[in-house]
Write a structure and sequence with these properties.
Blueprint (H helix, E strand, L loop, with lengths): L5 E5 L3 H11 L5 E5 L2 H10 L4 E5 L7 H10 L8 E5 L5 H9 L4 E4 L4 H37 L5 H35 L3 H23 L13
Parallel strand pairs: 1-2, 1-3, 3-4, 4-5
Helix pairs in contact: 2-3, 5-6, 5-7, 6-7
């Protein structure tokens, strides 16, 4: 079963949260509500999120301050943030949003289809990264098992070869999906942050592919796995 991605929705107005849930429900992911910046930071302590939709105008800790706290934490600094605002204060206000670490800054009322499409891109990137980490973890386990069973002979070698072939096939599927996503981003002239994230994912996939290739019989071992 494929694990669903979590999307954090942060807004002090319940009707806005309800509207966001209605727009994003078609993505079939897990939507998590937070009615304040403090509540959002608390949720981020325990759960991993694919993307955060963050309202700018909130009483107490506003969106800019909340984003600053998110970007200061090592655990959450790389989570994409999309700012949502009901008031367009001009270029300076928009620049402040990007300076706070947002990947996008959308003024209300926004086009539901556009918002859903933007969120979908970051969900796809998040899922590809999760798949990559799973493949690397499986390979590490196999390598540890092979080292512990050193000297077992042909059976261990046969099992290792079988698992390497399975991992290679799984990685090929992730590579194909990542390539398709990158082409889609290029064709749609997507946000620079999304394109950069996709490129980073492709580099990690390339590193994992090299590590797998180096473990093929006759190669004499290989470099460490990407993290």
């Amino acid at each position: 079963m494929v694990q669903k991605a979590k999307i954090l929705l942060v807004d002090d107005r319940p009707e806005n949260l309800l509207a966001l849930e209605a727009i994003l429900s078609a993505l079939d992911q897990t939507l998590v509500r937070a009615s304040s910046g403090e509540e959002a930071l608390k949720a981020l302590l325990t759960d991993d999120f694919a993307v955060i939709l963050l309202d700018v105008q909130m009483p107490g800790m506003d969106g800019f301050e909340t984003a600053a706290h998110i970007k200061r934490r090592e655990r959450t600094r790389d989570i994409p943030i999309i700012f949502l605002t009901a008031i367009n204060h001009g270029p300076h206000h928009t620049f402040r949003g990007y300076a706070a670490g947002a990947v996008d800054y959308i003024s209300k009322p926004f086009d539901p289809w556009v918002l859903r499409a933007k969120v979908s891109v970051f969900v796809d990137l998040y899922m590809k990264n999760c798949q990559l980490r799973e493949q690397a973890a499986l390979l590490r386990l196999q390598l540890e098992g092979s080292n512990a069973d050193g000297g077992q002979g042909g059976v261990a070698t046969h099992e290792s070869a079988g698992l390497l072939a399975e991992l290679s096939a799984r990685l090929a599927a992730v590579e194909e999906q990542a390539e398709a996503l990158s082409k889609q981003l290029d064709e749609e002239s997507a946000d620079t942050a999304a394109v950069a994230t996709a490129a980073h994912l492709e580099r990690k996939l390339t590193g994992l592919r090299r590590a797998l290739d180096a473990l093929e019989p006759g190669t004499g071992g290989g470099p460490g796995l990407p993290t």
